[in-house]
Amino acid sequence: MPSTIAVQLYTLREFTKTPADIAATLKRVKKMGYDAVQISALGPIEPRELAAILQGEGLFCCASHLPFEKIRDETQQVIDNHRLWKCPYLAIGGYGFSKMDEQKWSTFIADYAELNRKFTGSGVRLGYHNHNHEFLKFGGKTVLQRMYDEWDASIHFILDTYWIQYAGADPADWIRRARGRAPCVHFKDMAPTPERQIKMAEVGEGNLNWSAIIEACGSAGTQWHIVEQDNCNGKDPFECVELSLRNMREMGLA
Q1: 34, 6 in Cβ contact below 8 A?
Q2: What is the pLDDT of residues 142-165, one digit of tens each?
Q3: Domain architecture of the chain: domains with CATH
Q4: Angle at Cα 220 formed by Cα 217 and Cα 224, nearest 5°?
Q5: What is the 3-state secondary structure (H, E, C) of the chain?
Q6: How far apart are alpha carbons 154 and 174 in whole angstroms?
Q7: Computed over its alpha carbons, how large is the radius of gyration of the chain?
Q8: What CA–CA distance (Å, rounded) separates 170 from 24?
Q9: pLDDT tens profile 189-229
């Protein structure tokens, strides 16, 4: 059975600044057991060179993150690159990190729905990755629920377990709500610190309810369980993603 576990290269962003760095990093993640990656935060590299590296290592590009403006302003080039990489899912990494009122969110939701029309028939699905601020409520409804309700079902969601929990919501619940629209889920754990704070942790090393999350992913039709750890808290990021991979396999993921 092919693996359904991938690694988000944003976690390894300090090691993907040049084409040589990217090649070395992809070789290393393949060697530790990953068969798929999400591309994000890469340094300058020609799309064909990246495609050749991925193919040479036998790595599948399951998803990507790109800025909203690039997707909007260079839509056809973005589509062409994703076809070159054989990458089916594209998403922005988030939007509106500060000073977003109800009207600004409404404008963005409408603009993104319009942008999605450019992807019809392209073979590439446009999506959205959440943080915690999409759980702001206006009129009793969260921004994320509005996205679920108002966007065409062709727009997918790369749901992030850590940020959903950080917002005080239930990751498993929100994954189930996105049934058929959550092909990729970011697996990221949350752990307490002695200072009574919280930190990002390797999957299985924190306190998220992974059995419920994995069950919800199965119900939602999730294809890719993507390891991401924005902050490795001084640890070697390669060791972090390898530990997450090992723990996820022990949880029963292929």
Answers
A1: yes
A2: 999 999 999 999 999 999 999 999
A3: 5-250 (3.20.20.150)
A4: 50
A5: CCCCEEEEHHHHHHHCCCHHHHHHHHHHHHHHCCCEEEECCCCCCCHHHHHHHHHHHCCEEEEEECCHHHHHHCHHHHHHHHHHHCCCEEEECCCCCCCCCHHHHHHHHHHHHHHHHHHCCCCCEEEEECCCHHHCEECCEEHHHHHHHHCCCCCEEEEEHHHHHHCCCCHHHHHHHCCCCCCEEEECEEEECCCCCEEEECCCCCCCCHHHHHHHHHHHCCCEEEECCCCCCCCCHHHHHHHHHHHHHHCCCC
A6: 17
A7: 18
A8: 37
A9: 999 999 999 999 999 999 999 999 999 999 999 999 999 99
Give me the phi and psi of 187, to 5 degrees please. Answer: -95, 115
The span from the CA of 137 to the CA of 198, in Å, is: 23
Q: 241 to each of 11, 33, 229, how far by Cα in Å?
A: 8, 10, 8
Place of tokens 């999400």: 38
> How far apart, in whole angstroms, are the C-alpha atoms of residue 77 and residue 36?
23
CB proximity list for 109: less than 8 A, separation 6 or greater: 146, 147, 150, 151
Question: For residue range 112-148, what is the model confidence (pLDDT) as tens digits?
Answer: 999 999 999 999 999 999 999 999 999 999 999 999 9
Cα distance between residue 86 and residue 64, in whole Å: 11
Identify which of 173, 177, 157 has the alpha carbon closest to the alpha carbon of residue 165.
Answer: 173
**Residue 211 CB-density burial (10 A; 0-12 exposed, 13-18 middle, 19+ buried):** exposed
Distance CA 170, CA 243 (A): 24
Two structure tokens written together for 164: 């959903």
Give the span between the Cα atoms of 179 and 157, in whole angstroms.
Answer: 10
